[in-house]
Structure formats: structure tokens, C-alpha cells
Specification:
Elements lengths: L4 E2 L2 E6 L5 E7 L2 E7 L8 E2 L4 E4 L1 E6 L7 H4 L6 H12 L4 H18 L1 E9 L8 H12 L5 E8 L5 H9 L4 E4 L7 H15 L3 E5 L9 H8 L6 E5 L8 H14 L2 E4 L1 H7 L15 H6 L4 E3 L16 H12 L3 H7 L2 H7 L14 E4 L4 H7 L4 E5 L2 E6 L9
Parallel strand pairs: 2-5, 7-8, 8-9, 9-10, 11-12, 12-13, 13-14
Antiparallel strand pairs: 1-17, 2-3, 3-4, 6-15, 15-16, 16-17
Helix pairs in contact: 3-4, 6-7, 7-8, 11-12
Length: 400
Amino acid sequence: MPTARAVRTLTGATLSDGRAADVVIEDGLIVAVETAGSLTGADLDLSGHLLLPATAEPHAHLDKALSWDAIRPPMGDLRAAIAAWRGYAATMTTADVEARARTQALRMLAAGTTAIRTHVDVLLGEAPLRGIEALVAVREQLHDLLDIQIVALAGPDVPTAHLEAALDAGADVVGGASHLADDPIADLHRLLDVAERRGVPVDLHTDEGLAAAVTLGAYARRTAGWAQNRSAGHCVRLGTLDVGARDEVIAGVVASGIGIIANPITNLYLQGWGEEVATPRGIAPARALRAAGARFAAGADNVRDPFNPLGRSDALETAMLLVAASHLTVDEAYVAVSTGAREVMGLPAAGVVPGAPADLLAIRAGSLVEAVADAPADRLVIRRGAIVADTRTSRWLAIG
């Protein structure tokens, strides 16, 4: 089996600002970025490649990934997707979750993602920790290749004791979906009580629906001043509030320091099926959030499971959708799936700058626009100064 190969010097790379550069790495950190041609005898010649911070996935569901074909759920309905998943989850084994999650994580690594935060359902019925146990095993197996954070996703009908048990079993973060509860605010405080008592980070599915309950403001007020990292995924309802109400909630989010994670592919797929004319965007208001100074990231969310039948396991797909659906610039979109995602996840900032972790993506492209537009498959992925994935393609055309 191939092993990671450490590299110390990279030459001839194009940076996102168009400069050509040589890079020196020591002990997993970038120690120098020099003008191209400054170094000789490089470990890796990156001529023809764009060198970028590696991508990070702040909102995945590795326990659900790649289950679409086995479930064949109804399309375009969040609650129907939940029901379809729960029906399947009642019969699945820990080994099934582990195999699918590992396959999906490695696909993401090959595309350039070196850090993943995955929500994992705390299941109903017997053995509620099957998913958590599977992801703890995958995290250990891939420890040398990926950073994996596990969020214990406790739905409103999951007993608090089972959420606590998931944290004891190795989950890192409290998660849930309070907007689905009969009393959303009560469930929100239930989850936050656990996080406060345990002193762990929080990452909640929040207000996922064009007309969902609005819990984000209460979340921000309750956790203002907390030391631990906090984030809110989806926030679709925030994008449908009138401007005054939206900006009031955003101001509270910024003051509290909650990071917002948009999930364009799944929410564009799931939301708005009942609107036959002028179908609304099912996505958090990225531009308004960025303009207000909110911590902002974006993730792929579901990949080929009951909540989304598609997905390429590639953060460049998420970036492309942010440009098309959220009207971000290409540079802003790439930040959201790389350095912005790492910041929201509480990880050290990566980038092609001295002092940063050497988590890098070298992709065969001449510019960031070309990389996001074409998503070339030819990529080298570097984590902590070692090559952990290398994809090369060939093409033949019968032209004169």
C-alpha cells in the first residue's frame, strides 16, 4: 500500500494571485515562500499547477454517504428523506457505516480535502451509537491522512442520555436540529445545556427550511460570551426573512461569534419544490453574512444519500455553487471552502504563507477561476508536508 511521501521544497507553482513561487516546508509548516527560480533541486516541480490552501469540509454526513442506491428514497422532501434514512438506519450495521464513511472520506481526500467535520446520527432504538462507533474507527484508521471531527447529531426525539453517551464514546461536538422539534427553543436549550456542562463545541443544524422556525437568534443570545467554538449549518430560513429581521439576526450572530455554514447543493436540491414559479434559493444569505463580518464557511453536506442523490466529493463543486447561487466572487467562494472552513472548524489557518500548516492542494490550472470552472482531476494533495494523494489523467482526441 502506498505511503505518504514527505516533501521539503516545491518549485514553479502558480499562486492564486498569479505569482510564480517556490515554497520551503519544514516539520509540516511552510517556512518560506520565494520567487520562482530561487530554489534548486526541488522535491516537487509544480510547473503548470496552481498551489492553494487545501480544502476543508465543515459539514458532512459520512454515516449517510453513498446510501442512495440502497434506499431509493422519495425526492425533494426533507421530512420524507429523514423518514427514509431512519428506516434504513434501523437495519444497517456498524460495518456498513464504516465502509461507506471510509470510502467517502478518501474520495474527499483525493479531491483536496484534508479536514472533515462530519455529523453522525445518534440513532433511535437499540445500539444508538453504531454510527458514532463506526466514525471513531474511521477517524483512527485515517489519522495520518485527515483531520476528522465528529458531531453527535441528536434529533429532538433522541434522549439526552444518548447524546451524553455519544460524547463519552468519542464524539467531539454537540449537534442537533432543534427547528424540527415541537418546541424548537426548548430543544435548542436542551442541547446547549449539554454543551455548556461538558465544555465542548456546538454545531447545530439550524432553521433548515424556507419557512422553518427561527432559532438562530436565540442560539446567538444564549451562547454570547462562550469560549468554545460554535457554528450553525444551513440557516436557510435566514435567507427568506425580510431585510430588517435578517440583519438583526445576523448582528446577533456576529456579536456572539457563531460561524455560519452554508450547504448549497443539498439545500438547493431539497428546498422550494412546492414553488412552481420563481423558485426561491434554498441557501443561507452568504453575501449579507460576509458583509456583516460573520465567520462564514460552506460545505457539501450530503453526498448520494436520501437528502441529495448527487455530489462529487469535491469542494470545488461547493465553491462553484456559491458563485452561481450566492453571487460570491470566485475568490470569496474558495475562501469559504478552505481557510474560512478551517477557521469555522477551529483549525489553524492554512495557506501558502510562512508559518501556516503545509496543507496544500496543487491542481493543474493556470488560475483560480479556471480551477473552479473546470475542476481538473489532476491534483496533488499535501497534508502536514507530505503527499497524501496524487491523481493524474490522460486524454486522447481523434483530431487531425
